[in-house]
């Protein structure tokens, strides 16, 4: 069985990518996400060879951590400096790795350097709520968030839940 102890962020990101790449993708799953459907199909079909691994890879919290690590690695590779801010890894970079004022993937928030509004306490509180959303839903959160709409944050239920004011979405505050 694969043991991820002693495996650093780069190693775990590589591990996740390798396994995602090797998972057969099927269509017609009722989960709405074919990769998950495929894993479920394999488990119910009794293919137990890597069930421990699958359970781990299927765990939304593990997915959020792995995706966050991967995002931080990509950001660092692009020259970002990253630090732990209590439940969230804050990376700042001028590289075009984020949307709007910043993007949180898993437990990593990447934003531009030099703007205090992007890293102040309310903003980090807002982004930590996105971390919780990732941890609850795993990879699927990317699709769930997308379905809520990328263009108008005011119409996005996850932005509303994370707090419009904390997120500096003042145009959405009634
Ligand atoms: Zn937000």
Overall description:
This protein has 174 residues and is of the alpha+beta class. The chain is built from 7 helices and 4 strands, in the order H-H-H-H-E-E-E-E-H-H-H. The protein has 2 domains: 9-58, no CATH class; 63-172, no CATH class. The chain has helices at residues 9-22, 34-44, 51-58, 60-77, 121-137, 140-148, 157-162, and strands at residues 81-84, 89-92, 102-105, 108-111. The protein has a 4-stranded mixed β-sheet with strand order 1-2-4-3, sandwiched between helices. Strand 3 (102-105) and strand 4 (108-111) form a beta hairpin. The protein is globular and about 50 Å long. The model is unreliable at 24-34 (pLDDT under 50). It binds zinc ion. Zinc ion binds at residues 126, 130, 159, 162, 167.
Characterize the biggest β-sheet: 4 strands, mixed
Strand order of the largest sheet: 1-2-4-3
- The total strand number stands at 4
Topology pattern, helix = H, strand = E = HHHHEEEEHHH
Low-confidence runs of at least 5 consecutive residues: 24-34
Radius of gyration: 17 Å
Count of distinct structural domains: 2
Helix content: 40-55%
Ligands in the model, by name, code or SMILES, are: zinc ion
In round numbers, the mean pLDDT is 83
What general outline do the C-alpha atoms trace? globular
């Amino acid at each position: 069985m694969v043991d991820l102890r002693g495996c650093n962020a780069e190693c775990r990101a590589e591990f996740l990518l390798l396994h995602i790449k090797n998972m057969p993708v099927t269509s017609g799953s009722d989960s709405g996400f074919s990769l998950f459907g495929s894993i479920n199909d394999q488990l119910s079909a009794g293919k137990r060879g890597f069930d421990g691994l699958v359970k781990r890879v299927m765990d939304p919290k593990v997915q959020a951590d792995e995706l966050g690590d991967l995002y931080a690695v990509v950001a660092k590779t692009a020259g970002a400096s990253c630090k732990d801010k209590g439940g969230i890894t804050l990376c700042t970079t001028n590289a075009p790795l984020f949307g709007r004022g910043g993007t949180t993937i898993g437990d990593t928030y990447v934003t531009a350097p030099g703007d205090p509004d992007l890293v102040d306490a309310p903003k980090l509180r807002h982004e930590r709520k996105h971390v919780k959303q990732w941890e609850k839903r795993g990879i699927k959160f990317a699709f769930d968030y997308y379905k809520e709409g990328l263009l108008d944050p005011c119409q996005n239920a996850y932005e509303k839940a994370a707090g419009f004011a904390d997120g500096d979405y003042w145009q959405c505050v009634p």
